[in-house]
Amino acid sequence: QSVLTQPPSVSGAPGQTVTISCTGTRTNIGGYYSVHWYQRIPGKAPRLVMYGNDKRPSGVPDRFSGSKYGTSASLAITGLQAGDEAEYFCQSYDSGLGGSIFGSGTNLTVL
Amino acid sequence: QVQMVQSGSVVLKPGSSLRLSCKPPRGTLTSYRLSWLRQAPGQGPEWMGRTTPAVGESRDAQKFQGRIFFSADKTTSTVHMELRGLTSDDTATYYCATDRWFGDGTYYFDSWAQGTQVTVSS
After folding, report:
1. Most Cβ neighbours (<10 Å): which of A41, A45, B8, B105?
2. What is the pLDDT of residues B98-110, one digit of tens each?
3. How far apart are CA B81 and CA B36, in angstroms?
4. Of B44, B104, B109, the CB nearest to A33
């Protein structure tokens, strides 16, 4: 069972905005540890799309943005495109477990 | 991009060992720190451990301590991960990825291999 909680699925029409949440506790996100986000398209290697809460790696469009507040974080995607359809999961660190932890994953469907 | 030497799928029997190999992107092993992760069906990814070939150090997740082992072959620039005592719970897609220290206690994984599907079944 994943330590970080994400909604199982979100959806939106092309051009719309979706937000994916990631909820943790005081020993991870709430403990001032950063959140990182990944995109996984079936058959492809997972791809880092956000690190350090709100920093985009080179090559990731500025339609992707990240934020963090308290024990939660979120990834927003504006101007949805068919190519954004994928599984997204968040990642942080947990001081109790002493290692990296991940969210349960959210499947994004572009209608 | 990180390359898993064995892509595709593997089927192993309970009690046996899994050995996977990974080659980092351009450069030698001394330039990278590699983590191993896995994702079981319907679950989020799970970090298993990391190895830093340049200094011969490794760190395991608590769950895998005593069962996971790392090694590196500098002549072929390949890192190996061995997981012993397999059970059906080890059925998952396994990945290697380069990881970066962010500075606040977290690491992030900036280049992933495509993954190897491992099924443990009698």
Report:
1. A45
2. 989 998 889 999 9
3. 8
4. B104
